[in-house]
Design a protein that fits this description.
By secondary structure, the protein is of the alpha+beta class. The protein has 12 helices and 28 strands. The chain has helices spanning 22-68, 152-164, 200-203, 234-238, 309-323, 432-454, 471-475, 477-482, 498-507, 509-517, 523-537, 568-583, and strands at residues 3-6, 9-14, 83-87, 95-99, 109-112, 127-135, 138-146, 170-177, 191-198, 213-214, 219-220, 225-231, 241-242, 253-261, 267-269, 284-292, 295-303, 327-341, 346-358, 367-371, 390-394, 397-401, 405-408, 413-417, 421-431, 485-488, 493-496, 598-601. The protein has a 5-stranded antiparallel sheet with strand order 3-25-14-21-22. It starts with a strand and ends with a strand.
């Protein structure tokens, strides 16, 4: 048996390994095990890292879509009667819809006249009739001149036109029907009748004329449309009847809708100008003619010597905003090319412009501007938006609004048309609690899909990445378990107990709402915030740094440190082996091996 002495240690080739030397081989194996694990992880990272990041990102987006479906009902009724609106997925970004809170329900049609036989001579004397039309805190004094021989339709047309020319958000419409309720469910007059509506898209922006119901006093708040004769008895002749606010929650129903035309307000925008630069308009008085419906006039302004564009634009704005209640103007930020040319393109610099637009236009009203000669430099007609009424077909009946807010179910459901679409698509009003329970199930499944996608590749991500979505549940696990959400299995996926949810909603609905929907601490907003942060930073940024997987290059990152000796024995062993191989490489170890190929220390 051959002997070998290395640094005072007698090594002999033998078939027996002494028990006392096992820890040395174990620590060496642990060290090289880390090296092999590291190599395997590097291979996994290179083969699947980018694909895994893309798949996780897709799961996060799906999770976000599931979360966005969850809404708590705000209709003001108890959860037993609460409702939610559910849009067909293809309606996303085309309409916005909601169930109106019971304290803010406002009918579109407010009053109807009695029915008149069309083309039949009217019974009123010729002359001028005056009446007040009031809505909220405002009253308009209106007058109608009737001529001898006018028939019923002509009288109704005259009243319609004068109402529509007023600045109140009241629209009059003549409707003809042969059977009560044929065109409007609650219009019972047969023949020709006037229907008076209030455009809540405008009125609800004015605190003096907000529609709604005072729940405490069971009376309407500043929303009653009223008419009263001041000279003659025209309103008495029409026999106007107020429509009634609906009683109870919205009906569970389906509405098939198509958006024929999205509405917009008429608007004109000047070109952009350098605010500090001297105006190029000639000194003196200028005018811009305007018309809106039956109203016409001029926007007059003056330019003085040395006026900057900022001064001129402010002058135009002030003149336009003061000339009529039906139009207004604003100075807005704009971009314009600078005089600096790079050889490829001009730089853009900040500038100012003026926008002139209609205020609460009625159906069919369009603002038209006609600048005088010499004002072409303003560019008002180059960027004009002509405006349009909104038209939507609901269950086969075409309705037109200005701008685009439609009331369904007598004001209990509101739909705003944002983008035109041709297909007929469904919108459903459903039981709120049933819908919320279904949506919780959806986002629970989506959460589990995300977690199951991350966990098999968790070693590719920074420490704690998978638990970013667990934290909201972990921080309040008792309350979430009480309302039906709890973690199960070793992977900590979520289990949703719908029976527990119904029990919790029935006993403490406000607590359940806070747990799910509170802006600061609700589960859905917290998860949405995590999703937003991760997607903003990009999922790939949460992968461990590639430098952590290689011994070369930059120092390893903190998420996967370079394997290193962890005990004094390991440190000593490493030092001895390095010194030995550095100074004694002349030994032929193959000649020193026995049958087993083992080297065992026999020191001492």
């Amino acid at each position: 048996m051959a002997n070998l002495t290395l640094d005072g240690t007698n090594l002999v080739s033998t078939g027996k390994t002494e028990t006392s030397e096992a820890p040395q081989r174990t620590t060496i194996s642990s060290f090289w095990g880390d090296k092999f694990s590291r190599a395997a992880l590097k291979s996994k990272y290179e083969k699947t890292g980018s694909v895994t990041a893309m798949e996780v990102q897709s799961r996060i987006k799906s999770f976000g879509e599931a979360l966005s479906q969850f809404r708590w009902s705000d209709d003001g009724f108890g959860l037993n009667d609460a409702r939610l609106v559910v849009n067909d997925p293809f309606l996303d970004n085309k309409i916005s819809s909601s169930v109106t809170n019971k304290d803010n329900i406002a009918r579109y049609y407010r009053a109807y006249s009695r029915g008149f036989t069309p083309h039949f001579p009217n019974s009123l004397d010729a002359g001028t009739y005056k009446f007040d039309m009031s809505y909220g805190a405002e009253t308009k004094n209106l007058s109608v001149t009737l001529e001898k021989g006018m028939d019923n339709d002509a009288v109704l047309d005259a009243v319609r036109d004068v109402v529509n020319q007023s600045t109140l958000p009241v629209q009059a419409r003549k409707i003809s029907q042969n059977v009560p309720g044929a065109n409007l469910d609650d219009l019972f007059g047969v023949g020709s009748a006037l229907a008076f509506s209030v455009n809540t898209a405008y009125s609800n922006n004015d605190t003096s004329i907000v529609g709604g119901l005072d729940a405490k006093n069971e009376s309407e708040i500043n929303s009653q449309l009223s008419f009263s004769d001041t000279s003659g008895h025209l309103m008495d002749h029409l026999k106007l009847d107020d429509t009634k606010l609906p009683i109870g929650t919205a009906k569970i129903a389906r509405y098939d809708i198509s958006g024929t035309m999205a509405g917009s307000v008429s608007e004109f925008l000047t070109k952009g100008f350098d605010a500090n630069e001297e105006s190029s308009l000639s000194v003196g008085n200028h005018s811009i003619g305007y018309s809106l419906g039956d109203e016409t006039g001029t926007i007059n302004f003056a330019v003085e010597d040395g006026d900057s564009w900022q001064t001129v634009l402010n002058t135009i704005k002030n003149s336009a905003a003061g000339v009529s209640e039906k139009i207004t103007a604003e100075v807005v930020d704009a971009k314009l090319p600078s005089p600096v040319y790079t050889g490829e393109d001009y730089y853009l610099i900040d500038g100012k412009a003026v926008t002139i637009f209609a205020v609460s236009p009625k159906l069919g009203e369009r603002l038209v501007l006609e600048p005088e000669e010499g004002l072409e430099v303003l560019g008002l007609n180059i960027t004009s938006q002509p405006g349009a009424d909104a038209t939507m077909v609901v269950n086969g009946t075409s309705e037109t609004r200005a701008p685009g807010e439609f009331s369904l179910d007598r004001g209990r459901v509101t739909v705003e048309l944002e983008e035109s679409f041709g297909n007929t698509l469904p919108l459903r009003v459903v039981d709120a609690v049933t819908e919320m329970e279904k949506n919780i199930g959806y986002f629970t499944d989506s959460y589990n899909d995300l977690r199951k996608t991350i966990l098999p590749s968790e070693d590719l991500f920074r420490e704690g990445f998978a638990d970013m979505w667990r934290e909201p549940i972990e921080d309040n696990r008792v309350d979430y378990a009480w309302m039906g959400l709890r973690e199960v299995e070793k992977d900590k996926v979520l289990w949703f107990d719908s029976d527990a949810f119904y029990s919790a909603v029935g006993s403490e609905p406000d607590k359940v709402r806070d747990l799910l929907d509170d802006v600061e601490k609700g589960l859905v907003p917290l998860w949405e915030n995590v999703n937003e942060d991760v997607l903003k930073n990009k999922v790939s940024s949460y992968l461990i740094p590639e430098s952590s997987l290689s011994g070369a290059g930059p120092a390893p990152g903190p998420w996967l440190p370079e394997p290193s000796p962890r005990t004094e024995l390991e440190l000593e062993q490493k030092r001895e082996l390095v010194d030995t191989f550095d100074t004694n490489m002349e030994y032929d170890f193959e000649q020193m091996l026995g049958d087993t190929g083992s080297l065992v220390s026999r020191k001492g």
